[in-house]
Amino acid sequence: MMAGPAGVSPEVELEARGIVKRYGPLLANDRIDLVVARGEVHAVMGENGAGKSTLMSILYGLQQPDAGEIFLRGRKVEYRSALDAIAEGMGMVHQAFKLFNSLTVWENVVYGMEPSRSGFIDRRMAIARVGEIAARYRLAVDPTAVVGTLSVGVRQRVEILKALYRDARILILDEPTAVLTPQERDGLFDVIRHLAADGRTILFVTHKLHEVMTITGRVTVLRDGRVVERMATADTSPREIIRAMTGRAVNLKVEKSIAKPGAPVLVAEDLTVLSDDGRPLVDRASLSIRGGEIVGIAGVAGNGQTELIEALAGLRPPFRGRVSIAGQDVTAAGVDAHRVAGLAYIPEDRAVTGTARAASAADNLAMGFHRHPPLARHGLLDGRALTAGAKAMIARFGIKIGSEKLAVGTLSGGNLQKVVVARELTHRAPLLIAEQPTRGVDVGAIEFIHSELVAERDRGAAVLLVSAELSEILALADRILVMYEGRILAEVDAATATEEGLGLLMAGRVQEAA
Amino acid sequence: MLDFITPFLVNSAVQAITPLLLAALAGTLCGRVGVFNMALEGQMLVGAFAAVVGSYATGSALGGIAAAMLATVAFSLILAYGVTVFRGDAVVICVGMNLLASGLTAYLLRQMFGVSGTFSDPAIVGLEKIRIAAINGWPVIGWIFSRQTALTWVAWILVAVVTVVMFRTPLGLRLRGVGEDPEAAETMGVDVTRYRIITVLVAGAIVGLAGAQLSLGTVSIFSEDMSAGRGWIAVVAVMLGRNHPLWAALACVLFGFADAFSVRLQGQGLPNQVTDVVPYVVTLVALVLTHTKRRRRQDPTITASP
């Protein structure tokens, strides 16, 4: 959909000229020019490290450019901090939300700009104001709800409300759909359309091509800190955008041969996982994954996928049922026993479960495999083997980090994901459980990770894939299990599966899907 | 059992609560901006010492209070700048401050007055006990409200003030936000460092009052390490109250009565080594009980519904 007034040259809302930003030897932004019209939904695309985040930080005043100028509605502006930018009508919804979980929605929204009466917060006024904005842009949020109890999609609406409360004319959305379900995403798109129709301008930072095609009017593509392409969405194609982003043609389809499944590697029988108050989160799930096949688990988030994987990986003891890996019963055993039996695991949350942020890349790349040769000898770590292994992985997986000795906490999301993927794929385990392996990763890296997962399969590993992206499951899996309310509702042959059919099964509508 | 509750017990309990309460209030303020203040013990000791010095030098209790507040604010600069500008670890800094306070006051005691152990002098003017004639004779009400120092009144008024400021004003909202997620507060244009420094210093002034009550409230003396664990009990009250001034105050009331009760037991002929343990046992039991309850309530599987 083309947003903004069609036809003769619309008014320029935001213009950046010759933005340069340098971090030591790295030129993050190299003379970037960006022109965005009022009421436009403008996509800013690029691979990890292309300079999108730096550019957005500069536009939002979080960082100051080394050179270059910013014009808002034709007037030159200079920001000392984000506050100046906010005062000029900039708003930003960060990828990681910046909300106070213990406070209510309205408290979060008015924070720092509270309506007050004789020294006290005017609570009624605040709630009314927040409710009014929410209604106007169809952001369904209860102003008095405590943020910590809200779902991710609603929290994002709170972030948007925060910007609108400060009367943001230009809204930067940094990968806003990375954490949303398809339904929440559609809701967000509705909101974006309303905002654009109201004359507000949206900068939409994303990796996801189909979203760019759906919602944006124009696209600016960055590569290596430079603008490589500016185009109208209507005149371009996903393939063209990818070529601009990567500088080469990327394979969107995953090349894979027909699976040759061998013996079962992961077997779970009658697995039940209870919540702390006794509700079944996983309800008598049985599955068997054989070597040489990729089995995908599809389902709307929150239908027990996370808990099933936790039980299979030894992170959460099941209430009932059995789990075995390569013929070894590991039902009640801990994570280490699972690892020894042959598990490699790419967890859903790379920052919390997947890596130790303060530890070096070398340590992170060794974790989980550090007790056994070749990394450990006689119970002691072999520093040289650790370093050599880390260097090899950094090179092979193209992890952008200065040295293997640096802490991983500073890495971008995509790079951090590569650390996890590199570690788990390098050790050639017979079983690989991959949870959201490409979340927040750029297109080039997605292609690489996908081909690596297929390579794992082809060398005989059993691969269990959980993904919120239906397209990813359809592209990679040989068989698809659909989870609904903790149960494995159906098994579908990937060759005959369709997005519509899976969608119905994910909603629990078995009859209609049949 | 009930005959334990005598006018004296109640009156002295309210007195004993005052320094705890002031220190705990300071602790909740710091906790709300995300600074875990474990230095209350040391701050209180500095305040107690400075109060005696001020009172001795000026010949007025008010001078003592002013000196206590000034000294404790100055002492609190270590914490305020240590955790913000110098990005130090609050626990390490606080341990250092507690040790420093103990050594420094003992040293100054020797240097300034040439005594060690305890310093008492007729020139030290204590805090006046405000006798409210109208209610002095009343049971309970009179015991609680009459014959208390001004600082006791100040302490309870501060509980109300801090609660209202914390939960009803823009300033309070900002403080709570700073403590919960400094990064988020920063993006909303709130200067986290400044809010933290000022809050820690204001809290320092309040602990100064606690120190003054300690050395000028009941007796007009200073002895080495006279805070005697009260700062730590205040830390526990802050934790029990989860940085909420009213809950922290409630915890202080409990500890204050335990303290007064132990003094009372001493009067019954029990060895003071045994009775001295009472407040700490109560503290431990309270901590363990609330902690286990809290753990049970926590549900790691809470996932937001879409």
Detailed description of the structure:
The complex is a heterodimer of chains A (514) and B (306). Helix content of chain A is 33%, strand content 26%. The longest helix of chain A has 16 residues, at 182-197. Chain A has 514 residues and is of the alpha/beta class. Chain A is built from 18 helices and 24 strands. Chain A folds into 3 domains: 1-86 and 206-250, P-loop containing nucleotide triphosphate hydrolases (Rossmann fold); 254-342 and 429-514, P-loop containing nucleotide triphosphate hydrolases (Rossmann fold, 3-Layer(aba) Sandwich); 355-428, no CATH class. In chain A, the strands form 6 sheets. In chain A, strands 6-9-10-3-11-12 form a 6-stranded mixed β-sheet, sandwiched between helices. Chain A has a 6-stranded mixed β-sheet with strand order 18-21-22-15-23-24, sandwiched between helices. With 306 residues, chain B is mainly alpha-helical. In chain B, 72% of the residues lie in helices and 3% in strands. Chain B contains 14 helices and 4 strands. Chain B has helices at 7-32, 40-58, 61-83, 90-113, 133-136, 141-145, 150-168, 170-180, 182-187, 192-216, 230-240, 245-267, 272-275, 278-297, and strands at residues 118-120, 129-130, 148-149, 221-223. Chain B has a two-stranded antiparallel sheet with strand order 1-4. A two-stranded antiparallel sheet of chain B has the order 2-3. Chain B starts with 6 loop residues before the first helix and ends in a 9-residue tail after the last helix. Mean pLDDT of chain B is 89; it is low at 296-306. Chains A and B meet through helix 2, strand 8 and helix 5 of A and helix 8 and helix 9 of B.
